[in-house]
Amino acid sequence: MASERSTDVQAFIGELDGGVFETKIGAVLSEVASGVMNTKTKGKVSLNLEIEPFDENRVKIKHKLSYVRPTNRRKISEEDTTETPMYVNRGGRLTILQEDQGQLLTLAGEPDGKLRAAGR
Question: Which of 6, 44, 76, 102 has the fewest beta carbons closer than 10 A?
């Protein structure tokens, strides 16, 4: 199922909310794991991604991180939702920057014909 055009999951997670989402995941995993070890009860971490159209070449990724951390007397739960627009490149590959932006110059160093036509 994986191909060279598949989304790079590590890069994708790292690009969500400018890298902040990845940091939040790490902090929440540590916090819940600590609560589980201290209380010997279950905790829960959930990641939810919703993808919807944004503009011609992009989609909006809504990313929600929620967790339940056990404590000695009760449970603490929290939820955080943010959004990140991403380009949908060839093959469906999701990236924060567009991968193929075309050529500005020909091999001879002249402006590309498409660029010249668009500038008139």
Answer: 102
